[in-house]
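Please fill in the sequence for the structure shown.

STRUCTURE ENCODING:
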């Protein structure tokens, strides 16, 4: 495994995956009301997904005390839970191995998806579930 030396980031995209029980209402809210442009939409047997462009993404890490502080400031009580975060990377196989070696538990090895990407799933530090994905092209 070689380290990137060109100055390019190893992670290409941060994709927050939200499961919405009322998919149509959520899509309307984020796409039509908030104004996130639609990048793609796909279906599976009985299911749908829409990818919305949210611009630049960052990963904010906090300890439990500060997370409680943020909730208190914004909501008045502790409400936040855990989410699954998806990272687009150049090589999901190598990155999965790298993260596993650093302590992440591999839940699912890289698997080619129906939408033509190579995805793996890991349980990472901070009790965060990650998807690593590499777009495989046309």
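FILLED IN BY: designer on duty
SEQUENCE:
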């Amino acid at each position: 495994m070689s380290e990137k030396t060109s100055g390019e980031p190893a992670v290409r995209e941060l994709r927050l995956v939200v499961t919405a029980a009322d998919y149509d209402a959520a899509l309307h809210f984020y796409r039509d009301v908030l104004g996130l442009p639609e990048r793609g939409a796909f279906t599976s047997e009985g299911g749908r997904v829409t990818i919305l462009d949210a611009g630049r993404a960052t990963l904010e890490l906090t300890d439990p005390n500060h997370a409680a502080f943020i909730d208190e400031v914004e909501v008045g009580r502790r409400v936040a839970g855990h989410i699954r975060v998806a990272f687009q990377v150049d090589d999901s196989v190598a990155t999965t191995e790298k993260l596993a070696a650093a302590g992440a538990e591999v839940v699912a090895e890289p698997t080619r998806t129906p939408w033509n990407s190579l995805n793996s799933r890991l349980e990472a530090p901070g009790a965060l579930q990650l998807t690593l994905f590499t777009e495989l092209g046309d």
